Each structure stands twice: as structure tokens, then as C-alpha cells.
Amino acid sequence: MLNLLTSKINxxxxxxxxxxxxxxSATAQQSSCSLKINELKDxxxxxxxxxxxxLEQVKAREPLVRFGRTDEFGVIRTSINxxxxxxxxxxxxxxxxxxxxxxxxxxxxxxxxxxxxxxKWPTLDEFVANFGKALDLHADxxxxxxxxxxxxxxxxxxxxxxxxxxxxxxxxxxxxxTIAARREAAAEAAEAEVFADxxxxxxxxxxxxxxxxxxAVAKIKFKNKEEAEKAGYKLAKDCx
Length: 240
Known about the structure:
By secondary structure, the chain is an alpha+beta fold. It is built from 5 helices and 11 strands, in the order H-H-E-E-E-H-E-E-E-E-H-E-E-E-H-E. It has 3 domains: about 30 residues; about 140 residues, CATH 3.40.33.10; about 45 residues, no CATH class. The chain is elongated, with a radius of gyration of 28 Å.
């Protein structure tokens, strides 16, 4: 009798553990997003713009957009302001304040759209619920700063309220890592740079104030101290 009771208890515990595991698995699935950026669903609220588009494709979608120069890291940033500029199709961009584009190496890597407070989903709760469905994001929005975010495979979707209107940002996170790495490399290169005085054949590292005293006509730059020393320059005594 005791053995039978023990068996029933063990069986009940087993069922309970299985149920808990299934619940935990389902919750984990809802909390994560395995979509890749090219799998993100199109929705009219994005006006045909997609992360990954080329400059030419964005221009074809909106001929009035203007692009500036590419910076030293390969980035171009631009925006359009339909709410303030009547040259844009006001019916097409109804309730849209601003659309911002960030490009890296000619590809759109961040798309940000700010809507007016009159947008059809004005509150953050409504906005994330409906935009999540529109983009077919089967994951939970997580709190982040003053908004909410879904992190997927290599990209993120962030929603917040700005100036009383909702906004959406779709961002290629791998591209952001590339930009950060390029900036870090540039900072390291700048720190390694040395300036030299052609009159004295001395060089001055970036942290040596003596470099400021070199006349412009006598100042030359080397990418690092090794290059300067190879060219016959020595570290200035003031910097030792």
C-alpha cells in the first residue's frame, strides 16, 4: 500500500515538473526573437523603407531625400521632415514628424520614424502592441530606458514616446558594432600619432605638450613613434 502511494506521488511530481518545463520553455520563446533583419515583415507604417536598403533604393522610394558626405567611418546621416516641409506628400506622410536614416558603407543600418501625437497608436502600450503585430514580432517587448525594445538576431526594434508622439527605431546592431570598432581604431591611431620638428629632429607623442610649440612650417606627422624613429627622429627630452 505504501509503495503504491509513493508511486502515485512520484508520478504526480513528474507531471508537475514536465508542466513547469513546458511553461518555462514557452515563456523563453516569447521573450526572444530569432528573426534576421531580412526576414522582418513589411508594414505600411514604414512607408516602404527597410534596413539594408542602398542609397539609391531609398532615393527611389523618396526622391526628395538628400544625402550629405560620408564621414571618416563610412557613415552618412540624413533625415526628412514631412510635418514641417510641405514639399513632401502630406497625405502619404500623415501624422509623421520625421524620418531619419543612418547609412554605413552605402547601406541603411538605422531607420527611425517619429510620429505625431495624432498617430493612430498614440500611447506606448498601443504602439508596441500593434507595431509588434504589424512586424510579426513574436516576442515580448522589454523595458529599456524610457521605452521598450525587442532584440532579434543581429538587429533591434526600439519604441518610445518623444515630444508626446510615438517613435520606432529599427537598427542593425552588427553595423553599430562595426562603427564602434572603427571609431575605437581611429582613436587609437590618433593617440599613437606623433608630431616632429624638422629643425631639431625631435618627435613629440600625443600626450606631450611640447608638440604645440612646433612652428607650422617645421611640423610633420608620423603615424607612430616607430615610423618617426625609422625616419631618424628622436623622442624630445621634454617628453621623456
